[in-house]
Amino acid sequence: MGSNLRKGLFLVTITGAVAAFPYTVQASDAAGQEHVLPQAGIGEVLSDCYLSDKEIQVEDYLVPEEKGEYLDMAFADVQTFLYIRSEPTTESEWLGKLYPGNAARILGPVGEWTKIQSGQVTGYVYSDYIIIGKNAEEKAREVGEEAFVYAESKAEEEARLKKEAEEAAQKAAEEAAAKAGTGQAIVDYACQFIGNPYVWGGTSLTEGADCSGFVQSVFAHFGISLPRTTWDMENVGTPVSYDQAVAGDIILYDGHVGIYMGNGEIVNAINSRRGIGILPATYTNILTVRRLI
């Protein structure tokens, strides 16, 4: 028969538990209100048993003697994060955040709000957004205690965000320095060809190039592909204002282009008379400045 006892045998075997069995139970609803449920004592069970010819599952009426190792665990069931608050209200101060899957220990009864402790934070969370009970125990065993991740306190979040901002600023500075170095390298390379001839339609840095052919060939040396004409070059890279121009930017004019050297100058293939040389960056009206690195 196992644990499925017929009504006669059940009365004999369960007698020793009658004194310890509770007569009433309570439950909490979503609003956190407690209700007294109808009596579920042994007398009620046996009465129902005699009045019906049904089998009784003994386990349904026995209280487990040992609590599961992780039955007091909770896990955040959210997409972004769950506030841990100082009081069980949404108006109270938030003390920390539980991110998806973060673990916590349950410290108080589970109602609309549940008191938990996670990491360095102790407070209240809205119960609809946590996994508890056997589901939490199963998740805990699946994850393994050594892999639990706990809440982040407000102070910890502030420290993390500050560190991330500092690291981002440092990275941006390093990238800017690297780009400046590359830009200067482009200028230095282009200046090697000063004095070489200007040839309409040419792209040779030594035998001759026109303005766009010169710029195209210089940047090709650094693995940067540019279109052939000045009109197409007007849309490459990122536009910047002239007062933000740095070495290595290209400056486009009406039918002409040059590489900005810094200090208000460009290196460019000027014309057939002057060849490749240097001009003031503002020698004529600037159409656009483009940043390629």
Q: What is shown here, in short?
A:
The chain is of the alpha+beta class and 293 residues long. The chain has helices at 7-14, 42-51, 133-143, 154-191, 211-220, 230-233; strands spanning 4-5, 26-28, 34-36, 56-57, 73-76, 82-85, 94-98, 103-106, 113-118, 121-126, 130-131, 152-153, 203-204, 208-209, 238-240, 250-253, 256-262, 265-271, 275-280, 288-291.
Largest sheet: 6 strands, antiparallel
Number of alpha- plus pi-helical segments: 6
Global geometry: rod-shaped
Mean pLDDT: 83
The oligomeric status of these chains comes to single chain
By DSSP, the count of extended strands is 20
**What does the radius of gyration come to?**
39 Å
Strands in their spatial order, largest beta sheet: 15-20-16-17-18-19
What letter string, H or E per element, gives the SSE order?
A: EHEEHEEEEEEEEHEHEEHHEEEEEE
**Architecture (CATH level 2) name of the largest domain:** Alpha-Beta Complex
Could you tell me the strand content as a percent range? 25-35%
Unreliable spans: 1-43, 56-66
Q: Kindly state the percentage of residues in helix.
A: 25-40%
Separation, N- and C-terminal Cα atoms: 81 Å
Which CATH C-level class of the largest domain is it? Answer: Alpha Beta
Structural summary, described in words:
With 293 residues, the protein is an alpha+beta fold. It folds into three domains: 58 residues, no CATH class; 78 residues, SH3 Domains (SH3 type barrels, Roll), CATH 2.30.30; 113 residues, Alpha-Beta Complex (endopeptidase fold (from Nostoc punctiforme)). The chain is built from six helices and 20 strands. The strands form six sheets. It has a six-stranded antiparallel beta sheet. A hairpin with a 6-residue loop joins strand 8 and strand 9.
